[in-house]
Amino acid sequence: MLLENVKTALEALFGNRLRSVLTLLGVVIGVFAVTTTISMGAIATAGITSELQDFGSQSLFVVVDFDNPQAQRFNDDDIEALSRLPIDILQQQSTGGEIRFEEESSSISLNGTTANAAEVDRTLELDRGRYFSQADEKNAAPVIVLSSDASQELFGDTVDPVGKEVAVSFGDGSRVFYTVIGVKKRIGGALGAFANDVSGDIPLTTFYNDVPGVTRGEYDFLPITIDLDRNANDIEAQVRAILDRRRGSDTYTIQTIEGALSLFNTITRILQAVLGGIGAISLLVGGIGILNIMLVSVTERTREIGLRKALGAKRGTILQQFLIEAVVLTVIGGLIGVLLSIGVLYLIVAAVPFLDRVIISPAVILMAFGVSVITGVIFGVWPASRAANLSPIEALRYE
Amino acid sequence: MENVIEARDITKVYTLEGGLEVHALRGLDLKVARGQYAAIMGPSGSGKSTLLQILGCLDTPSSGSYQLAGQEVSELSEDELSEIRNKRIGFIFQSYNLLPRATALQNVALPLMYRGTSAKERLQIATKSLERVGLSSRMDHRPNQLSGGQKQRVAIARALATDPDILLADEPTGNLDSKTGVEILGLFQELHEEGRTILMVTHEEDVAEHCEKIIRIKDGRVEQVQEVEQRRLAEFTGAIP
């Protein structure tokens, strides 16, 4: 009888194809929205987390807190004190300027750093040319390694920047010339996708020679790379302990990838909740659509119900028939919604570079499906029981 | 001769909104023997519709006893009545009441579904039943592809499919032209000759005169049971126009 009722339900739904499709739409959209937002959140989180963890989880970025008037720049003694820890510290200075090659120019962030940056900074990879050497550093050579974006700005895709001479001018009007010796690779993943990084690295010695108003041995920030086999949280605590003792706890801040990650996770979760909520509302609206259409269907088929009862259908049979109709409607809607969602997720992952794989958890699908079935039952029960309780005499008389 | 219907002192009281009581049946007695072909006649308001509903187990009497094929059915629950209707009664309605989206075959097989007959067997029985009413060439037609007479023949096939104790026909020729009506009456006559018990409600004297007996109802009671002296005869040709 159950099978017969499923068949009857399908026939009734097919008999009213347009109406069934329109009724489905609410459920499809609801299930699609819920499944897609939740999966999208999981996919984005996984994509970004794995990218960040690839290189970022073992880094700290210690910055002087210039909001505090007592704060002073880090110096070589600080670096000396910190270097007891299993970490690498880059001596780095940074300034803004304008870079020019022939007719093309761009504002640029110029970093003076040491030759070992190429080994210490795990995010640093070269696309072409080379990084500057110890010898370059020692000789304060006029060489520069451009970021991918900087190279793009000045040289475009066609010109090979290596060997070209660029001019950099500073705020006081002074101008220096550097030879491009290398171009860095664009940082992969989420960070690279969003960041526009127009910068160039020059030897710290060159930096001190050329950049006006810089004090040797003072640093606005310290990029710290922690050895891979150490616990980042422990090291962070030790760094804090040393700096607190030397300088006071309110003179600097430590930025970590974990911090950024947890902020990102929070945002993702809020977005998931908001969009999922909207999806749930549209599922509710879809449910009401089903309720409406089932009530219409029961009224329209009053005579049919009367006849079925006259021919021997019991209350339970009629109840089942209409309930199944509602559930079949929502199950089909749920199925379409989930399939649509999977399709769209694959498209998004294919289109967005830093999302590396589609994650569709069975739990999400099961939940979306379960919710749509429950929607069908909840919104189908009332019309179905109305149908089941019709008196056959009155139902047969109904015009 | 065994009685298929044995109703004794049946009353039916409806309470209208406002508390007004309407006595549709007032102590009605009726016996219909197996194999009988009888018509029920009566002016409107006489209680014949109410009677047909009670005899068809669509409703229960307020008091009195109703035995259908030897079984007391006056105090059964709604679901039990459904089962009795399915097993014992074949309904034939004035407006056919076929499912519009189902084929003739599916329509005829429908009551068998409610008694749990297997799909294969349902198909066999329904096919046979449609052959009986001369519609073997129309089995896959939907109601809107059939003429009025053909629709009524599908309805009769549906009533026969469950092999019921009694066929209850409510104005079966009411929606048909007289020629098609006679054709349907011819079919009834053949079924009667095969031993079927048929009870037919009609308000047309010449339709009633095809039966063996006319039961006249008035004011909720049987006023008269009259043997038809000169029965009209109808012929079922089974023709498909």
Description:
The complex is a heterodimer of chains A (399) and B (241). Chain A has 14 helices and 13 strands. By secondary structure, chain A is α+β, with helices and mostly antiparallel strands. Chain A has 2 domains: 187 residues, no CATH class; 200 residues, no CATH class. In chain A, the strands form 3 sheets. In chain A, strands 4-5-10-7-9-8 form a 6-stranded mixed beta barrel. In chain A, a hairpin with a 5-residue loop joins β8 and β9. The two termini of chain A are 28 Å apart. With 241 residues, chain B is α/β, with parallel strands linked by helices. Chain B has a single domain, classed as Rossmann fold (3-Layer(aba) Sandwich). Chain B is 32% helix and 27% strand. Chain B contains 7 helices and 10 strands. Chain B has a 6-stranded mixed beta sheet, sandwiched between helices. In chain B, strands 2-1-4-5 form a 4-stranded antiparallel beta sheet, with helices on one face. Chain B is globular and about 50 Å long. The model of chain B has no long low-confidence stretch (mean pLDDT 92). Chains A and B meet through α1, α11, α12 and α14 of A and α2 and α3 of B.
